[in-house]
Design brief:
- The protein is mainly β and 272 residues long.
- The chain has two domains: 33-115, Immunoglobulin-like; 122-231, Immunoglobulin-like (Sandwich), CATH 2.60.40.
- It is 0% helix and 50% strand.
- It is built from no helices and 24 strands.
- The strands form seven sheets. Strands 5, 6, 7, 9 and 10 form a five-stranded antiparallel β-sheet that branches. It has a five-stranded mixed β-sheet with strand order 12-19-18-14-15, with no helix packed on it. A three-stranded antiparallel β-sheet has the order 3-4-8, with no helix packed on it.
- The model has no long low-confidence stretch (mean pLDDT 77).
Length: 272
């Protein structure tokens, strides 16, 4: 109720003004929660935060999908819950390039996804390698930690089912200025070996021969035959690997891939 003086009439008058306001409570808003992914001391943490910045405690995460750079996707459906800080520890997520997570708190749900910065160095590994006794076998090592959980070397004894664990024949060298290092395998006797990079699900069959190279490294002269090594390849290290968006009106999903190849000459060809 408002009272005012009407100068024209010379009297006081009263009027009533009524206004309606609609208040949004966000009760049914899918953005009721804020989700965050934070990396701290080499490990990733998922955070669920309310609109006022408060941690959402005991929220259930019922779907977590981890997409690696190489290999099959890993899906976890067992329930995880946020702690008193509204967070869930996810670990180092090594070799993971994409993460999807969803869950709920009461009748409110959340669903988020992130692209993770993955390793900046990648290497191509052939299916098989041929070497002579006494030669060193040097390969890029695609992990940050060197242990038997990441790499294995097994020797298969000819004519039997016996196998030997040759992990102690592997020496790891951290390469200055690179995210990863190299492994060197030496002093292998002639025979057949399998080298496995477990997290990449990559296997390389290595055959060590008794003999000498004949004119070039494409031929090995053995006691009773001359062995040709088809498509012998020289290992090259790819560094500074990056994927970034490329501006394109015709294809908005176009990406730009850039990298450097160590020791590459003018005749190097790269196929994607």
């Amino acid at each position: 109720m408002v009272e005012y003086t009407n100068i024209t009439k010379g009297i006081n008058e009263r009027k009533t003004a009524i206004y309606d306001y609609t208040l949004r409570t966000h009760e049914n808003d899918t953005g009721y929660f804020e989700t965050y992914l934070r990396r701290y001391n080499g490990e990733y943490f998922f955070y669920l935060i309310g609109k006022a910045g408060e941690p959402i405690v005991d929220a259930d995460v019922d779907y977590l999908e981890l997409i690696p750079v190489i290999g099959d996707n890993k899906t976890y459906r067992e329930e995880l819950s946020t702690d008193k800080e509204g967070k869930i520890k996810l670990g180092t997520l090594e070799e993971i390039c994409h993460l999807k997570i969803s869950g709920s708190k009461g009748d409110k749900s959340f669903n988020s996804a992130w692209n993770l910065p993955y390793r900046s160095e990648m290497s191509y590994y052939p299916n098989e390698l041929h070497y002579l006794e006494g030669e060193e076998i040097a390969l890029p090592y695609p992990h940050t930690m060197f242990n038997s959980g990441s790499v294995s070397l097994i020797r298969y004894n000819s004519g039997t089912d016996n196998i030997s664990n040759m992990f102690d024949s592997i020496v790891y060298h951290k390469k200055e200025g690179h995210e990863y290092g190299d492994i060197v395998v030496k002093d292998l006797e002639h025979g057949t070996y399998k080298l496995c990079f477990k997290k990449l699900e990559t296997q390389i069959m290595i055959t060590v021969h008794k003999g000498v190279y004949w004119e070039s490294e494409d031929f090995i002269l053995k006691a009773n035959k001359l062995l040709e090594i088809p498509n012998r390849k020289t290992m090259k290290r790819i560094v500074n690997f990056k994927i970034s968006p490329e501006e394109s009106k015709s294809n908005p999903n176009l990406k730009r891939v850039t990298f450097n190849v160590e020791g590459a000459g003018t005749g190097l060809k790269v196929h994607a």
